[in-house]
Specification:
Structural class: mainly beta
Helix content: 10-25%
Strand order of the largest sheet: 1-2-3-4-5-7-8-10
Shape: elongated
Length: about 220
């Protein structure tokens, strides 16, 4: 589905740019598809190309203080564990609508979309052990970079035009989410036959796919 969507978007973009006809800019706000979002686009004849934007951010702050026994000092000492985590998910989506049927104020269309989520993250740790804190942060960055995400969607909708500048649309379709995880680690193996150790590379690969249906409603403004 991933390569079909990419190919279809390329073909439709080419047809869109080669068409000389009446054109409009448009703006929309939508809800129900995934997160509430908005988008900007350009409509020419029956083709409508849009860039849609959604964003979500999660931040967590954890602080623990108290006393614990310190074996080096041989007594109880104050301790402080502090964690500050921030995760942001930016969801730009390129979508193309093609209106296949127009009658009076109603227009039916097919839609193709491709989304490449971008993850932004920050981790700050303060446990009193600078070396351990730095190692945990590096492990966090390595773990985050091992993930890749993408999403594609195909849908059908109907748009009702109150006038040439405003419409409301309902859409139903199928969306595919794919998450991949790949990580390589250097490991040491012990050979019981020779009693010696040897280094090798261990590769871990996980792929997960979720394909739900969706419904979405949007308000569309044309200029």
């Amino acid at each position: 589905m991933k390569y079909l969507i990419k190919f279809s978007l390329i073909v439709l973009c080419y047809l869109f740019t080669m068409t000389n006809a009446f054109s409009q800019f448009n703006f929309k706000v939508s809800t129900g598809g995934k997160l509430n979002g908005g988008g900007f686009g350009f409509k020419k004849n029956n083709l409508n190309i849009m860039i849609n934007l959604q964003h979500i951010n999660l931040s967590t702050y954890y602080l623990e203080t108290g006393e614990e026994y310190n074996w080096d000092a041989g007594t109880f000492l104050d301790y402080k564990y502090e964690y500050d985590v921030s995760l942001g998910l930016f969801l730009p989506t390129l979508s193309i609508k093609y209106h296949v049927f127009n009658k009076n104020k109603i227009s039916a269309y097919f839609m193709l979309g491709y989304m490449k989520p971008m993850v932004m993250s920050k981790l700050e740790i303060n446990t009193g052990d600078a070396e351990q804190d730095a190692q945990m942060i590096e492990e966090f960055k390595k773990y985050r970079k091992s993930f890749s995400l993408w999403s594609g969607e195909i849908g059908f909708g109907t748009e009702y035009f109150f006038d040439e500048n405003f419409s409301i649309a309902g859409e139903f379709g199928l969306r595919s989410f794919t998450v991949r995880y790949k990580q390589e680690d250097e490991v040491t193996n012990w050979d019981p036959n020779t009693g010696e150790e040897s280094a090798s590379t261990r590769t871990t690969f996980i792929k997960s796919n979720l394909t739900p249906t969706y419904t979405k409603f949007s308000l569309n403004f044309y200029f």
